[in-house]
Amino acid sequence: MTDMKKRPTAESKPVDHVTMTPGHVATMPVGHVTIADRRQFLIGAGTMGAAALALGTGLGIRKARAQSRAEISFASAAFFGKETFGDLIKAFNESQDRILVKNIELPPPSSSTEVYQGLVQQLARRNGTPDVFSQDVIWIAGFAAAGWALPLDEYFPADKRSAYFTGTLDACTYDGKLTALPWFMDSGMFYYRKDVLDKHGGKVPETWADIATIAAAAQKAGDIDFGYLWQGKQAEVLVCDAVEIITSNNGAILAPDGKSALINQKGAVEAIQFLYDTIAKTKISPQDVLSWDEEPSRQPFTSGKAMFMRNWSYVWPIAQDAKTSQVVDKVGVAPLPAFPGGKSSACLGGYQLGVNANSKQREAAIELLTWLSSTETQHRIALNFGLAPTRPALFQDAQIKKEQPFMASLEKVFTGATARPKTAQYAKVTLALQSGISKALVSGNVQAEMDALADQINKIVA
Ligand code: GLC
């Protein structure tokens, strides 16, 4: 771990990009530290004559320029697509000359738990760094309850808020206060290979049982290696997969009042049993899904080896890009299936924006937030990252409709998505879920593991 107290050396350059992983909480070289060091360097250099003086003058000009811009930091999980969040921050820096943002790159969003831990380490120091951060929708309650996220109501009054989906605003609200600004939405969806499906009935399956039957038939016929890919790794995404299948069987993780677990009830147990069976019984999924999160499951799909897959929307632009995909124009996207008597359910994901309650640069932070969440930037994020806007108007945008057709056709899937438990205790609840569901999927003792898990969750939320 880089020592936060360690001063950069005289050679250190202004940095507008830092990579940070938990266990490696990088020094965040905010500008004034760099400038102070330069001053020391100049005092030493002053004795060295004219050359040093000339150098000193150059640095002096740069110092004056740097000081005229408010310097803030932005930390986020590293999403990628046709560009990176680092590129977005660069565009913001170039768009104006009042604020200079340092980009702090956390691990990828599939490492949600690790990104969370990295942010918690920073925010708990209460020293104002990072000034702005993006937060997975599941952390909003916890960050607000800890007093780390600045309430934003006064900066984004009702007339500004009305441009966002009400569901996303609800997700950004804790204890009656808006503690996050909507940014982009994610939701679980069902990818299928149109060409393989055409040979096997042509109709997009709407029940889990149909998936198993069709996928097994396609595998048996040798048309495909893997029938169905999902994410069984002991990680946050497993909770997302579980929420979807459990809800689609009229089950739930917690009771509506959030005070007791329902994960050991019939609806949930049957759903987890189905996932276990995809590996052990129907064999439409390889054993490997138990160690796969988003990207390892996406790769065999876009290289043409799988018929069906559950994943997030970021896969679409990758699947449609000939540089990264063997299945361009062969992929369809639909709502996930349900059990008989249940309804299709997508897990609500996505990252929303937050301001550090201890930031000393609130005005600059709000300006960055406003830019990141603007119509223009959300438009850019939709096109370049495949991430859905939180502004309903953008779902009608012609270019987005053309380049990301699934967004408009699945608008209801996004807006009707099922949230993971909204509790300040979520960090504990998710670790219990990840471990308990994982044990059930490895052992096949689904009821016993769900009983043990329910006991554990009841202790956390009671
Ligand atoms: C996506 C979702 C996020 C979720 C994560 C799990 O990034 O947007 O909400 O927690 O996947 O891997």
Descriptive tags:
five-stranded mixed sheet; 14 strands; four-stranded mixed sheet; single chain; D-Maltodextrin-Binding Protein, domain 2; 462 residues; binds alpha-D-glucopyranose; alpha/beta
**Distance, first to last CA:** 36 Å
Task: Give the CA-based shape.
Answer: globular
What oligomeric assembly is this protein in? Answer: single chain
Instruction: Please compute the radius of gyration using only Cα atoms.
Output: 24 Å
Top CATH class of the largest domain? Alpha Beta
What count of domains describes the coordinates? 2
Average per-residue pLDDT, rounded, comes to 88
Beta strand count? 14
The CATH level-2 architecture of the largest domain is identified as 3-Layer(aba) Sandwich
State the low-pLDDT regions, or none: 1-16, 20-59
Report on the architecture of this protein.
The chain is an alpha/beta fold and 462 residues long. The chain has 2 domains: 17-186 and 349-418, Periplasmic binding protein-like II (D-Maltodextrin-Binding Protein, domain 2); 187-347 and 422-461, Periplasmic binding protein-like II (D-Maltodextrin-Binding Protein, domain 2, 3-Layer(aba) Sandwich). The protein is built from 20 helices and 14 strands. It has helices spanning 31-45, 50-67, 85-95, 112-123, 140-145, 158-161, 166-171, 194-199, 208-220, 236-247, 266-280, 294-302, 315-319, 362-372, 375-385, 398-403, 405-409, 411-415, 426-443, 446-461, and strands spanning 17-19, 70-77, 99-106, 132-136, 173-174, 177-178, 184-187, 189-193, 226-229, 306-311, 331-334, 348-349, 351-355, 388-389. The strands form 4 sheets. It has a 5-stranded mixed beta sheet. Helix 10 crosses helix 11 and helix 11 (266-280) crosses helix 19 (426-443). The longest helix is centred in the first third of the chain and has 18 residues, at 50-67. It is globular and about 65 Å long. The two termini are 36 Å apart. The relative contact order is 0.14. The model is unreliable at 1-16 and 20-59 (pLDDT under 50). The structure holds alpha-D-glucopyranose. Alpha-D-glucopyranose binds next to helix 10.
